[in-house]
Amino acid sequence: QVQLVESGGGLVQAGGSLRLSCAASGRTTSRDAMGWFRQAPGKEREFVAAISWSSRNIRYADSVKGRFTISRDNAKNTVYLQMNSLKPEDTAIYYCAAKPMTTAWGVVTGNEYDYWGQGTQVTVSS
After folding, report:
1. Is the dihedral of CA 125, 37, 74, 58 positive or negative?
2. What sign has the CA pseudo-torsion 116, 123, 23, 37?
3. What are phi and psi of 101, to 5 degrees?
4. What is the DSSP letter of 89?
5. What is the spatial distance between Cα 82 and Cα 71, in angstroms, rounded to a whole number?
6. Residue 27 to residue 91: CA distance in whole angstroms
7. pLDDT tens, 3-45?
């Protein structure tokens, strides 16, 4: 079992930055693909970014490309989401997710993750 805990959310003005962290416990996630998703009020959960366990394969949603950066530190069992140039439409609860992978290049951009965190709120004011 893997427990995921997100942190780093908060209230920020448009144009500002936040760095989210997702700390895993229970076992190492060094061979898991990791992802970030978000859910805004009244909307379905949507994909934000994903990273393979080797960090060699990274994907982003078009809406965040060029503004968000996903990274991971396998030694710390942690994945990060650096969010720059934030917009009010980025307001949402952000979730991280993990899925064991057999390949170093594997990423998951859909909801097929095995483990999910509880989420952290990000609010961007205009």
Report:
1. negative
2. positive
3. -130, 150
4. G
5. 8
6. 31
7. 999 999 999 999 999 999 999 999 999 999 999 999 999 999 9
